[in-house]
């Protein structure tokens, strides 16, 4: 059976589709930056999350932390992979806070699949994920909003 980063193709397909679908549940009225995430537990459960903003920006929660937090609250602490989906190209890397949060439960070899708005992905390990979410990412969002009204078009 073919595998990618230790996942079967069926696992990867399910993981990606759940992360992409989770974007629809994002609450992001301020930034319009939708993020969906899905974590696959070692027991085979898929747990999705979406970003939840608050007018007081530091109070919001990223999709990755929603997914991992929900999984941990359900009793999971062993994971196979995570997928993160955004509407931008290239897809966004988890922010520093999310990387720190995920690293609490994952080894450096843990695969992180990052999906863009067209469903293309890059995969890195936790040890390799070093492209931070930076100001340029926000400039890209602003350009999307000026051009098409929102980054999901």
Automatic annotation (TrEMBL):
Transmembrane segments: none annotated. The keyword Flavoprotein does not apply. One of its GO terms (biological process) is pyrimidine-containing compound metabolic process. Its cofactor is Zn(2+). Substrate binds at residues 51-57. InterPro entries: CMP_dCMP_dom, Cyt/Deoxycyt_deaminase, Cyt_deam_tetra, Cytidine_deaminase-like. One of its GO terms (cellular component) is cytosol. It catalyses: cytidine + H2O + H(+) = uridine + NH4(+); 2'-deoxycytidine + H2O + H(+) = 2'-deoxyuridine + NH4(+). The active site is at 64 (proton donor). One of its GO terms (molecular function) is cytidine deaminase activity. It comes from the Eukaryota. This enzyme scavenges exogenous and endogenous cytidine and 2'-deoxycytidine for UMP synthesis. This is Cytidine deaminase. The lineage of its organism: Eukaryota, Fungi, Dikarya, Ascomycota, Pezizomycotina.
């Amino acid at each position: 059976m073919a595998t990618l980063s230790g996942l079967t193709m069926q696992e990867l397909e399910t993981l990606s589709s759940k992360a992409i679908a989770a974007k629809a549940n994002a609450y992001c009225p301020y930034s319009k930056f939708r993020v969906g995430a899905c974590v696959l537990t070692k027991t085979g459960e898929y747990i999705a999350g979406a970003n939840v903003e608050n007018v007081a920006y530091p109070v919001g929660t990223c999709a990755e932390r929603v997914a991992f937090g929900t999984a941990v609250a359900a009793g999971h602490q062993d994971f196979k992979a995570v997928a993160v989906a955004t509407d931008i190209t290239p897809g966004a890397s988890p922010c520093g806070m999310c990387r720190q949060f995920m690293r609490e439960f994952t080894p450096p070899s843990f695969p992180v699949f990052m999906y863009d708005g067209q469903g293309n992905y890059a995969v890195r390990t936790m040890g390799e994920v070093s492209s931070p979410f930076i100001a340029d990412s926000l400039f890209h969002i602003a350009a999307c909003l000026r051009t098409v009204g929102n980054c999901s078009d």
